[in-house]
Structure formats: structure tokens, C-alpha cells
Amino acid sequence: MSDFISNPFKPGAGRVPPELAGRELLLESFAGLVRQVGVSGEGERPWVLSGLRGVGKTVLLNEFVRLARADRWITVKIEASAGQPLAVALIRELNVVMRRHASLSERTAEALKKAWGALRNFQLRFDPDGAVVGFQLGLQNPVPGIADSGDLALDLEELLRTLAETAGELGIGVLLAVDEMQEAPLADLAALNVALHSLGQEGSPPPLVFIGAGLPSLPAVLASATSYAERMFDYRSIGLLDNDATAQALASPAESNGVRWDADALAKVVEWTGGYPYFIQACGKHVWDVRATNVIDMGDAVLGTARARDEVDQGLYRSRLERVNASQRDLLNAMAASGDAPVSIADLVVRTGKQRASDLSVARRELVKAGHIYVPERGYLAFTVPGMGDYLDRHPDR
């Protein structure tokens, strides 16, 4: 080929693919949500996205943030972590976001003063050792009376209300997005649920939109935090792509760059990827790199997919298994006998040669904590990463 064409595919955690195939309805729903808030000036029901690792939850959150920013919204995206309180992550990201908005105009900076005061109070209660916020507006000292009670749920509610009311005065909304939500301490999730619930119950809710994302276990985790969470959130399950969406994700970026797929080659790669977005991007990248012409044929598909498989095996599956001990690996191997399907703990007791379910409890608990497996329903376990069962079947002793 005389002219180099940049590879359009983007494998990797959270990277935005060239084609968000199969997610059109979800994106349209969110765009409609933004329009609704813009017209009414009121907040809407919070969303929760749940799905396996690598299906594109973070990508969707990033796209939602982009869409909201295009309408000049105040957008706050954080990642929950077991090692950091949710309040601290929120304070530090809000500090950056509000500085950015305050620099837009004198009117915006003036409108944000009350929100800065609320954030400063909130920081003094929950992150007193953090960098001082709001100093450029002369708010080094707290402004009493807002978000300063020391009760996380109440202060979080007041902080979010103040910020959203400020956004409303500016004719915009606030998007708060929390990724890996299942990692947050349960007490933090309870406080967040209470705050969102209280704000949503107001006659004219301030223009705040919340979207959380996490593993399939997230709805159950949220319900454990507060019983009404199962009714409060609008739950959206993010699954694997169907064949048509997979073909679109592979073919459309190629065609946009003057390259087309042979029909049989495309059908085979669609079959091999199994609709797993993470693997689709890896296959697209490697098939693109090995192609000899501007027509991707079966030879390109076979070689590129083999290289993609090696990359994903080493970078995703094997790296995760390097962190498990022997008893945990035995449990994972027993699960792999059912592929990626959920398997009952009773069956796993038999497969591992144990006497009772409690013999698996330590390994099970640690694997769930590490995010390798989850509980899809009571008495069952399943992998959090699509294809893990197949990998273990191909590499039972690695």
C-alpha cells in the first residue's frame, strides 16, 4: 500500500471506540434526558449501568460526560475505590471542575461562590488535609450553615443541591458520574443513596443527573446499602453486542478509512469475538495491522485474531490470574467447567472435592472482593470477565 492509514481501532480500558455500535438507544435516551432537564430545569431519576468488565460501561460514562459538556453542563466524573472515601474523591474532582467553570466568565464565578462555600465546608468535615479549595474567590474560610453538619448523607445532599441550584441559575445542569461504584464503602453508598433520594423527592428537584456504573452485582450492593435503592434507580444492563452490532463495530471504522472486509472474513471474526467489546477492538486493531491490501480477507482475519487472542490472554486473563492463590485458582478452574455461565456453589463443592459449601467460603469471598467473580443470584457464582472460562479451559495449569 502506498499510503499509510492510521489504525482506527482502540483496544484498552475505557478508550472510546471509533464506533459505539449497539449502544445507540442508550445514547439517545441520555441525550433526551439532557434535553428534558434543559427544558424543565429539574433533575431526573438517577441511572445505574451494570455489566461485566470490558463491555463498555466506562466508555458510556465518558460519552455521557462529553454530551453534557457540549451543553455547557457542570460534569463531575469520579471512580470509586475501596481505599478512598467517596467524599474525598468528590471533593478533589469538584475542586478541579469548579475552577474550570469559574474561569469561564465573571457571571459564572459570581454564581459559583455559594457552591464554593458549600464545598469548602464539606471539605473541612470530610477531607481536612486536602488542598484548600476556593481560594481564588476569597473563600479560604468556611461559610457556615451549608454542608457542615458532619452527617455525610445530609451534607452531601446540601452540597449537591447548592451546586445544582447554581447550575440552574446559569441555565445548565449538573452531571455526577461514579464509575466502579461497587468498590465504594457501603456506608458511603448508603449516604449517597439517601442524598439522591432526598433530592429526588423534592417538588422541583434541582437540575442534577446522577449515573453510576459497576459490575452486575452493583444493584444488589446498592439495595444492601438502602432497601429503597431497587426502586430509586433506573437500572440499565450493559451486555455483549449482538452479531449485527459486532459487524458494525468492525466494518464501519474500516469503511470510513477506505478499507472493506470480505464477507466471510467479517462473519468469522464476528463469531470469534462473541460480541465482547474489549476483544472486538483488539481483533480490529490486529487484523488491520496484518492486512496486505485494502480488502481484509480470511487470512488477515485468522492471523489478526490469533494475535489479538495472544494479547488479551496475556494482558487481561493471565494478569488477573497472577493475583490468585492455589485455592482460589482451584475454585476458578471448577467454575470454568461451565464456561462463562453461572454455576451453583453446590456443583462447585462436588467439582472441587470439598465436603461442604463453607469449605469454599474463604476463596469465594476473596475472589468476589478482588472483582474476579460475582454473585448473579443467591447460591451461584459467575466470572466478571467474559471469556475467562474459555481461557481457564485452554490454560488449566497456567
What's the count of strands?
A: 10
Count of discrete structural domains:
3
Categorize the overall geometry.
globular
Low-confidence stretches: none
Helix/strand structural class: alpha/beta
The percent range for strand residues is: 5-15%
CATH superfamily of the largest domain: P-loop containing nucleotide triphosphate hydrolases
What pattern of helices and strands is seen along the backbone? Answer: HEHEHHHHEHEHHEHEHHEHHEHHEEH
Largest sheet: 5 strands, parallel
What is the radius of gyration? 24 Å
- Span of the ends, CA to CA: 40 Å
CATH topology of the largest domain: Rossmann fold
Assembly state of the chains shown: single chain
Give the strand order, joined by hyphens, for the main sheet. 2-3-4-1-5
Q: Overall mean pLDDT score?
A: 92
CATH class of the largest domain: Alpha Beta
Q: Give the CATH architecture of the largest domain.
A: 3-Layer(aba) Sandwich
Structure description:
This protein has 3 domains: about 25-235, Rossmann fold (3-Layer(aba) Sandwich), CATH 3.40.50; about 245-320, Orthogonal Bundle (Helicase, Ruva Protein, domain 3); about 325-395, Arc Repressor Mutant, subunit A. The chain has about 400 residues and is an alpha/beta fold. A hairpin with a 5-residue loop joins strand 9 (about 375) and strand 10. The protein has helices spanning about 25-40, 55-70, 85-100, 105-110, 115-125, 150-170, 185-200, 220-225, 230, 245-255, 265-275, 275-290, 300-320, 325-335, 345-350, 360-370, 390-395; strands at about 45-50, 75-80, 175-180, 210-215, 235, 260, 295, 345, 375, 380-385. Helix 12 (about 275-290) crosses helix 13. The protein has 17 helices and 10 strands. The strands form 3 sheets. It has a 5-stranded parallel beta sheet with strand order 2-3-4-1-5. It is about 55% helix and about 10% strand.
